[in-house]
Design a protein that fits this description.
With about 240 residues, the chain is an alpha+beta fold. Helix content is about 50%, strand content about 15%. It has a domain of about 100 residues: General secretion pathway protein M, EpsM (Gyrase A, domain 2).
Length: about 240
């Protein structure tokens, strides 16, 4: 006699395999649709952001262009032309001063570097071009050693290049000679003179302080004799060092 009681407690799956497959396909389609919707919304949002940013840039550029036009209209064209001409003149003046030759630099060098035993009687300075400056002089020295020492001085100055002493002739009043050399144009430009003056003004010593009272021995002490100075045309030659 059979009863309705089952012999096992494990439930039996009464669903069919076909139904389980359709459920899995439906879940996958829902996931794909959700991802597609998210991507679509993101694309639309990105496109809207790009469009709005382009509109912002266009508006900003138009505003700046209008501001430039307004600012340009406020300027006086006549004043701008005057400023342009002034700028051109200043540039030309700068070029002229940069290439201007100052012969006084050469004469100062000659005065500072001529021995007291040497004197020059004539000077021929030829400055036909910036590259063809030459100097020729006739001089008298106390001795041949003075001529040699003068040649050494001129070779170390930097303004004179290729110094040549020639036609050395001993006579009763001294040793006569001829001097010829080239002049470095870059060393005697006006700009060099201005720079030297500015450096001298910047390196000027401060004003001396009030002198302190001296003792009787100091006030009675004789002062030292000044050293002999060199010149371009010395009146009393001395022996060379």
């Amino acid at each position: 006699m059979e009863t309705g009681v089952q012999n096992t407690f494990i439930p039996h799956d009464v669903s069919h395999p076909a139904e389980r497959g359709r459920q899995r396909e439906g879940t996958l389609m829902d996931l794909v649709a959700l991802v597609s919707i998210v991507l679509l919304v993101a694309s639309v949002a990105l496109a809207a952001g790009v469009f709005l940013y382009e509109q912002y840039l266009d508006t900003s550029n138009k505003s700046k262009i209008n501001q430039l036009k307004i600012a340009k209209a406020q300027f006086d064209s006549t004043l701008i032309q005057e400023f342009s001409r002034l700028d051109d003149r200043m540039r030309e003046a700068d070029t002229v001063l940069g290439n201007h030759i100052a012969p006084s630099v050469f004469f100062h060098m000659l005065e500072a570097n001529t021995l007291s035993t040497v004197s020059f009687r004539s000077l021929d300075f030829q400055a036909s071009s910036d590259e063809g400056m030459a100097v020729k002089m006739q001089g008298i020295a106390q001795s041949v050693n003075s001529v040699a020492l003068q040649a050494d001085f001129f070779s170390k100055v930097g303004i004179i290049t290729s110094p040549i002493f020639s036609n050395i002739d001993r006579q009763q009043d001294g040793v006569h000679f001829s001097f010829s050399a080239l002049v470095n144009p870059a060393a005697i430009r006006y700009t060099q003179l201005v720079m030297a003056a500015e450096n001298a003004a910047g390196n000027a010593a401060p004003a001396p302080s009030a002198p302190t009272p001296s003792t009787p021995s100091e006030s009675a002490a004789p002062s030292a004799a000044p050293a002999p100075s060199t010149g371009f045309f010395p009146s009393q030659p001395v022996n060379p060092r």
